[in-house]
Amino acid sequence: MTDLVQQDVRTQETRAMSVTATKSRYQSAEFSDRLRRRYAAERRFRLAGMAAVGIASLMLVVLLGSIVGKGYTAFWQTQIRLEVTLDKTQVEEGNYMPVLRQALYAVVPEVTDRAGRRSLNELLSSGAPYQLEAMVKANPSIVGTKQTVWVLADDEVDQFMKGFIRRDVPESERRLNDIKIGALDKLAAAGAVKSAFNTTLFTAGDSREPEQAGIWGAIVGSFLTLVVTMLLSVPIGIAAAVYLEEFAPKNRWTDLIEVNINNLAAVPSIIFGLLGLAVFLGFFGMPRSAPLVGGLVMALMTLPVIIIASRVALKAVPPSIREAALGVGASPLQTVAHHVLPLAMPGILTGTIIGMARALGETAPLLMIGMVAFIVDIPHGLTDSATALPVQIYMWADSPERAFTERTSAAILVLLAFLILMNGLAVFLRKKFERRW
Amino acid sequence: MSVQTQFPTASAPLRSATGGPLLKMVARDVKVFYGAKQALKGIDLEIQENRVMALIGPSGCGKSTFLRCLNRMNDTIENCRVEGLIALDGEDVYGHAIDAVQLRARVGMVFQKPNPFPKSIYDNIAYGPRIHGIATHRDELDEIVQTSLERAGLWNEVKDRLREPGTGLSGGQQQRLCIARAIAVSPEVILMDEPCSALDPIATAHIEELIDELRENYTIVIVTHNMQQAARVSQKTAFFHLGEMVECDDTEEIFTNPRDERTQGYITGRYG
Questions:
Q1: Are residues A284 and A425 in the same domain?
Q2: What is the ipTM for the molecules in this complex?
């Protein structure tokens, strides 16, 4: 027994010795050196990758940070409290501005000269009388009484209260003179100046006065445009993709069509705008600045994106599913409608939503068809004059007033929120309906 | 689609010259081309009713191509051209009398890889009867689903989870589900393209038993690479080689006393 064990130990030893004697090539110094270099290369690659991700994240943080930093103040707006006496004759004549001004003069009685009073007049927004008018219309019984009202301050007052106009700058270079600042200080001391949520931004159309300007008109314009785009491009795009992928013979013509679709997806969007200008406005005589035309142009632009995404999704459906359906006697159309299309739907939806998001953020083609216009009214139909959210941003970015700068950033934030929402929806749908086979 | 056919004769005999059982399907001089490449070089084959016909041969010999001609599944392949006559009950399947969709309802197919629809087990079976209008009422459909699953030997395993996805079953169960799906539309012929190649031996034995039982009601054509399987399940065997049908005879005859050298070489494992 012990002999056997000893023998076993000895054979193991000899085996081990023979291994060290004939060192395999994978144990040589050269090989371990090579292995070390391979690991070093891998580490370098990983570091480079992490650096790339880091730089990209940093850029994103800087971009978002600067937009949020510039834009968040736009969500608040300064208001001024006034004790107004609603004089019956003035109300009947519609002279609300003098009512407000009288109340303001009463706060700073020491300012009596014309120039000083003109300065005081400029503290209030030109939209303030409309607020008062709306109050009276809503409740006519307040005519002839004394009322406490909060009215919009002028955009420069707003900027001053937000600290963007500095006191230590000499008066001649300051946007607000000493009389205005004195009056504001007095109002503020009495608690008659407050910063409230800027509902105007979300309910009003465009305006020359920043404190009265809003993006609701642009949002409605964008919405109407997108509805037209979706109604046109989704059914046409999916039908084209299904035909090309499932039914069309593969020949030179379909190859040509495929190449053209791929090229169209890469055409600069302004070209589609020019096309819309020439065809829809020039030839068909459609109305200028209308969401209908905007939607048509966007549909042309989105179609190739949807067709390509849908074809990819259809291609990803395994052929065995088609064979299974054909094998039990389904017609080609039944095969596609009952089996292939439902399986491709998540991919198609994702592509569609991403195409829509692209259309939502598009400005250039809308410039060509006149959707870049100063439009105060909220559009009510497809042929009303309208603008779109990115175009609104473009126009505000062009405005000189400091208050429009922050509103530009705020509008960008709203647009980004919509885009994130749409992309999030795309991810959600893909995750929810994704199937494995 | 791009399938072009030539018909030497419009019909085929229902019985072979020597008598015997009914000929369910007859192939005469079937040639198949994929573009310029010829895959089948004139196949003559007679498939008897209620028998299992096994098609054997090395890979790429054209047996699957031939099988797919029998229910016109080759129609879906670009550039595929079929010449010659394939008849079902004496009627040319590429002729005007039979439509491809109608043909596939009469000649069902089970594929190499189990391919259940990503739907519930119930819907997998009910799909065929629904689109063909075989069952109009819920009760009829339930009955078809049950009998199909019973015949496929799957009922006891899945009767409590008919609403669960068919893709959640094991490989062998999925293949039996596919057989049940083929049976559900009451075909006359069932084509099986290497139905056990993706299955383990136990599942394979299951399917083989099933094929033997199904023979009573259906005519079965099975392509297989497994010669023991061909010997076990079939009554007739045809040996294909390089696009030709070398030899077709009773299975026993082929395996014990092959006439052709190539057949002998293949079944004794010298090549293939």
A1: yes
A2: 0.87
